[in-house]
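Record 1 of the preview.
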Amino acid sequence: MLDTSLLQLWPVVVAGGFCVGFLVGMTGVGAGSLMTPFLISQVGLAPPLAVGTDLLFAGLTKASAAARHHSFGNVNWPIVRWLALGSVPGAIGMLLVLGYLKPDIDAVSRVIKASLAVTLVISSLAILLYPAVARGRLQMMSETAESPARPLPTFLLGLTIGSIVTLTSVGAGAIGVVVLSALYPHLITRRLVGTDIVHAIPLTLISGAGHAGMGNVNLLLLAMLLAGSIPGIALGARLTGKLPDWILRIALAAVLMFAAYQLYQKI
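->
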């Protein structure tokens, strides 16, 4: 149940979708880290419903920017394939666990809130550390720099992200971009962002479809979010790699910390 009518909330929901879409398009971060806490604390969704709605929101939003990032040369497809080989089975495995166990909804809510709070703190720290990692490799990178895929660690990263994202909807961007930057230090930032966005599409769509099958998606709310996010991510994708993002990352990290605090208060 929503605490407030969606008809009253639609301007806030559409504006929130646009802002998150813009951040995702430009940095690869935000679809889960910002949207799920927003849906829980501001819109009034129960955590399982917020996670399911946000997963489909993330998948459809990022899918709308995939062609643009590919046309800009921002996607390393071998890395995407190895990530997906891990993340898709990880997501399916977590869905099977959730579906088979059929846990009490209140217990699931508490677990998801706690998981989100911890994951948001990790994500905010990762976002702050990422520019330092990037600065250390700027001298040895060029616009055409590429990195061969590292199969095993990339597969394991995908497996981990698939499980975490299916449970909490957080991690595909915030954790994925940072860990990828450590695994592939020669890959320029815009390619890290584009690769991470494209990889998240099958993961979030499969996870979201699984949650929809369990009744954990609000379709009206999803439509409102997409109305804002699709133009937002198109604008953000166009600006990828053209604007400095250190101020944005500090602000985003602060918002994530605040969101984690809000969720902790509700556990």
